[in-house]
Amino acid sequence: MDCDSTEEEPVDYTAFEEKLFEEVRNGKDYQHFLNLSSQLDCMLIRSFLASMQIPTYVEGGNLNKIYGGTSTAVTTVFKMKLYILVEDYDEALEVVKDYIKNKEKSLSEKSGSDKYLKVLELMAAPYNISASQEMLGITIFAKKTKDEKPEGILQILKKFFTKNFAMCLLAICCMCFFSCTKKQIPFNQEQWLKEKNRYCMTDSLIEKLNKEKPNRQQIFNLLGKPKLEGRIADNEVDYFLKSEDFFTVWVFAVNFDDGGNFESAKVLCED
Predict the structure, then answer these.
(1) Can you list the positions of beta strands (E) in the chain?
(2) Beta-strand pair 249-256/138-140
(3) Is the pLDDT of residue 82 over 50?
(4) pTM of the prediction?
């Protein structure tokens, strides 16, 4: 097991986390197994455990990506906690012991400019389990006994959502941004009549109507009649654009004077 090997195949850790949660829901015990002060250690150890079909869950990984930058070679801002099923403890322990042994050997062989990085890594590791491992940034916790009561399933699920909060928040922000930002395309009558991409055509349609000044009947010939009669008034015709939820609807409002001549067009949000 080579702890310097970073060219591992990408692992879908989400699947292994879900497997751990499922096993816990079915009554199996889990425990806090490791504290890790290096993102690289965490990534490699999880990869080795995953190759042996040992499910894991890590708390604190996303916080380090946010506050600690992209570097994984030295340390983290927050210690990471790695959890496993109690029944996997003995096998996982052998994996970690082997990893620590190889890491210690690798660090001892570094020389030249690598010495600087080696010193930084060793000095920044605050977790101790023995004299030989206290500088490697990996803490191994004892195997949980049957007398110890595990946390409830709601607590571990809470940790899962807390771990992924940053990514969920980013996804929501992106969705809000793209929903509020209309990427405009040229007006296309065929798509409009099929109610496709209407919201994205509004800028070019307003420009077209302001230039051509069509009357009420010409508007109907171009855009069709709204399906709801309530959308047709003497001085205004409203066309459905899109809805964001049950209470928010966007419409394209065309206004006429008393003689049925075009006056203006605009996009409105109806709450």
Answers:
(1) 30-36, 57-59, 80-85, 138-140, 236-243, 249-256, 262-270
(2) unpaired
(3) yes
(4) 0.44
